[in-house]
């Protein structure tokens, strides 16, 4: 019985071998052509030498060959006469040999370069890293920390930390913090002691800020170093064409090379570089912002890494906060993704946070990002240079799990309802006809900006990205088009209002409670103090602990009294917090001054309304 055979396939290694055999044939052919060129030059030079008549026009020392050479090599005749007159050296006698040597040298250099390039392709592995990829930041951050970078004699020195494509920023992981400067001067006492020590502390801060940290990275060229007992080469090349990048970016590419056909060592190095870059952030929340990275291109650019904000510091009803977090957790669960996929539902989730300014909409988004360890991507639709193509490109670059925050969508010029636009279309057309009849000058219009239909296509169009969490904030939800708020685009709506009694008490307790981070410096300083300080330091420490303990016991009573003096539903959490920060170490004074603060805020609001 004969079995049907499928088409035979050439093994992968045979295909690679055929490619390199073809390259070797091309190299041999190129060397043969170079050899023929050298032979032709040698024959021509020897013929010129044999036909040369050195006595022709010997009186003026000028020959036909000399005149021709003087046309191609300015000053040749002067040099030739000088050598003949003073050194008795006839340059024309050695000229053929010089031409042969120059041709042979040029051909040899070209051949060696091609041989080295081919050997490099055949016996080495190379990884290319481009400027517009985040792995560029990983590798440059890792390189800047290596010992060989400090020993190299060719390096790039700089202090910039604000470039768009940056591998160094203010969060460089070196552990430098202004708080550490003042630890020796901080004895954990109250605000009066802080002001007494401020001058000395601030002098140290100013002195430190004058000397910005120097950053060193390998310069352009090839640098050799050892990694896990393997010799590697780091190559940094500058490109002539910047590919549309702005002038503040230096267009360049990086290469990593190793001996051998196995690139595993290069992949290990890049993985280590990524881990080192990510490890410096710890549990901080990484924030990216959509902005221009070139002439016309938009990209997500890392702008900062901030400590996570506790969810308890967000002034909102606990039931609403918990429902919001639980909904995100359920959405991120792997079972939910499979559930969506099995039923043919796009795997996306959208939220709308609306309310007056300063009520905590952005704070809730940031707290959720820190709690869940998700990267936060900020985007403003108010940018005039942002068009629909750029918006689609930004959303296509989003990772699978992240939070995208569109702030103040009501002020982005897309708040008009499409029904109103349709009803006004005829009137607009009439006005355009009239204006065109009166004025014959051509109109110049621009298509910049994002339309409502373009935003809807990005959110849940056919090519919309999946896996991301979209959060939109607005101060006026009633201005938004109902098409933007339909289920599938906005799955949960959270209303933020003015602070009530519970919110005021919660905010007061959050400001004046003794937290773990507040006592960190005091504990460190007490550990640094020598044992023989005397009774005075011990008494001060005991008094301080008593004051802290009394504050904890009385904090609930003070919070209730504070909330009772402020009318409900009239002030935002941001306004109340601003008042409390003026008395951050004096809760009793904050309570005594709150009634006057209420009168002042009301008076300012009344003046603002009258001015309108």
Automatic annotation (TrEMBL):
<keyword id="KW-0999">Mitochondrion inner membrane</keyword>
<dbReference type="InterPro" id="IPR050747">
    <property type="entry name" value="Mitochondrial_chaperone_BCS1"/>
</dbReference>
<dbReference type="GO" id="GO:0005743">
    <property type="term" value="C:mitochondrial inner membrane"/>
</dbReference>
<feature type="region of interest" description="Disordered">
    <location>
        <begin position="167"/>
        <end position="189"/>
    </location>
</feature>
<dbReference type="InterPro" id="IPR003960">
    <property type="entry name" value="ATPase_AAA_CS"/>
</dbReference>
<dbReference type="InterPro" id="IPR027417">
    <property type="entry name" value="P-loop_NTPase"/>
</dbReference>
<keyword id="KW-1133">Transmembrane helix</keyword>
<feature type="transmembrane region" description="Helical">
    <location>
        <begin position="26"/>
        <end position="50"/>
    </location>
</feature>
<dbReference type="GO" id="GO:0005524">
    <property type="term" value="F:ATP binding"/>
</dbReference>
<keyword id="KW-0378">Hydrolase</keyword>
<keyword id="KW-0472">Membrane</keyword>
<feature type="domain" description="AAA+ ATPase">
    <location>
        <begin position="347"/>
        <end position="500"/>
    </location>
</feature>
<dbReference type="InterPro" id="IPR057495">
    <property type="entry name" value="AAA_lid_BCS1"/>
</dbReference>
<feature type="transmembrane region" description="Helical">
    <location>
        <begin position="93"/>
        <end position="112"/>
    </location>
</feature>
<protein>
    <recommendedName>
        <fullName>BCS1-like ATPase</fullName>
    </recommendedName>
</protein>
<dbReference type="Pfam" id="PF00004">
    <property type="entry name" value="AAA"/>
</dbReference>
<dbReference type="InterPro" id="IPR003959">
    <property type="entry name" value="ATPase_AAA_core"/>
</dbReference>
<keyword id="KW-0547">Nucleotide-binding</keyword>
<keyword id="KW-0496">Mitochondrion</keyword>
<comment type="similarity">
    <text>Belongs to the AAA ATPase family. BCS1 subfamily.</text>
</comment>
<dbReference type="Pfam" id="PF08740">
    <property type="entry name" value="BCS1_N"/>
</dbReference>
<keyword id="KW-0067">ATP-binding</keyword>
<dbReference type="InterPro" id="IPR014851">
    <property type="entry name" value="BCS1_N"/>
</dbReference>
<keyword id="KW-0812">Transmembrane</keyword>
<dbReference type="GO" id="GO:0016887">
    <property type="term" value="F:ATP hydrolysis activity"/>
</dbReference>
<feature type="compositionally biased region" description="Acidic residues">
    <location>
        <begin position="171"/>
        <end position="188"/>
    </location>
</feature>
<dbReference type="Pfam" id="PF25426">
    <property type="entry name" value="AAA_lid_BCS1"/>
</dbReference>
<feature type="domain" description="BCS1 N-terminal">
    <location>
        <begin position="99"/>
        <end position="314"/>
    </location>
</feature>
<dbReference type="InterPro" id="IPR003593">
    <property type="entry name" value="AAA+_ATPase"/>
</dbReference>
């Amino acid at each position: 019985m004969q079995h049907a055979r499928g088409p035979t396939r050439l093994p992968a290694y045979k295909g690679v071998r055929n490619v390199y055999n073809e390259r070797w044939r091309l190299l041999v052919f190129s060397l043969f052509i170079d050899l023929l060129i050298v032979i032709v030059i040698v024959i021509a030079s020897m013929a010129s030498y044999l036909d040369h008549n050195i006595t022709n026009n010997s009186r003026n020392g000028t020959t036909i060959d000399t005149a021709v050479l003087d046309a191609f090599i300015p000053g040749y005749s002067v040099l030739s006469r000088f050598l003949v007159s003073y050194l008795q050296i006839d340059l024309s006698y050695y000229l053929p040999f010089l031409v042969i040597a120059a041709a042979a040298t040029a051909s040899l250099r070209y051949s060696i370069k091609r041989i080295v390039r081919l050997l490099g392709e055949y016996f080495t592995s190379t990884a290319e890293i481009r400027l517009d990829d985040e792995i560029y930041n990983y590798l440059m951050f890792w390189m800047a920390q290596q010992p060989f970078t400090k020993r190299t004699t060719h390096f790039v020195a700089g202090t910039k930390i604000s470039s768009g494509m940056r591998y160094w920023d203010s969060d460089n992981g070196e552990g430098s913090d202004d708080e550490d400067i003042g630890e020796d001067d901080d004895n954990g006492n109250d605000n009066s002691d802080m002001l007494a020590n401020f001058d000395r502390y601030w002098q140290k801060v100013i002195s430190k800020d004058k000397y910005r940290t120097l950053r060193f990275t390998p310069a352009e060229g090839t640098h050799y170093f050892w990694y896990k007992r393997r010799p590697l080469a780091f190559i940094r090349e500058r490109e002539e064409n910047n590919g549309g990048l702005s002038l503040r970016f230096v267009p360049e590419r990086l290469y990593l090379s190793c001996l051998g056909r196995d690139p595993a060592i290069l992949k290990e190095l890049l993985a280590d570089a990524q881990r080192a870059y990510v490890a410096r952030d710890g549990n901080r929340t990484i924030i990216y912002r959509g902005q221009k990275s070139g002439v016309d291109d938009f990209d997500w650019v890392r702008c900062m890494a901030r400590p996570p904000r506790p969810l308890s510091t967000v002034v909102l009803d606990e039931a609403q906060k918990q429902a919001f977090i639980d909904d995100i957790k359920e959405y991120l669960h792997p079972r939910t993704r499979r559930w969506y996929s099995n039923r043919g539902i796009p795997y996306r989730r959208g939220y709308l946070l609306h309310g007056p300014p300063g009520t905590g909409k952005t704070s809730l988004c940031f707290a959720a990002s820190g709690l869940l360890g998700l990267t936060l991507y900020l985007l403003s639709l108010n940018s005039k240079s942002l068009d629909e193509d750029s918006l689609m490109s930004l959303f296509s670059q989003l990772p699978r799990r992240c939070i995208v925050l569109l702030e103040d969508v009501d002020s982005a010029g897309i708040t008009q309802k499409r029904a109103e636009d349709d009803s006004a279309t005829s009137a607009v057309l009439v006005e355009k006809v009239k204006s065109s009849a009166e004025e014959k000058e051509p109109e110049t219009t621009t298509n910049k900006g994002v339309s409502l239909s373009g935003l809807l296509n990005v959110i849940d169009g056919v090519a919309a990205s999946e896996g991301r969490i979209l959060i939109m904030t607005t101060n006026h939800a009633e201005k938004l088009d109902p098409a933007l708020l339909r289920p599938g685009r906005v799955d949960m709506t959270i209303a933020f209002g003015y602070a009530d009694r519970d919110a005021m008490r919660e905010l007061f307790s959050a400001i004046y409670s003794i937290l773990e981070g507040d006592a960190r410096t005091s504990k460190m300083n007490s550990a640094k103090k020598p044992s023989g300080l005397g009774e005075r330091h011990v008494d001060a420490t005991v008094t301080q602990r008593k004051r802290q303990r009394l504050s904890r016991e009385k904090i609930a009573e003070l919070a209730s009294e504070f909330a009772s003096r402020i009318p409900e539903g009239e002030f935002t959490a941001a306004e109340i917090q601003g008042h409390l920060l003026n008395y951050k170490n004096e809760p009793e004074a904050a309570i005594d001054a709150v009634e006057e603060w209420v009168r002042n805020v009301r008076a300012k609001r009344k003046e603002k309304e009258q001015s309108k």
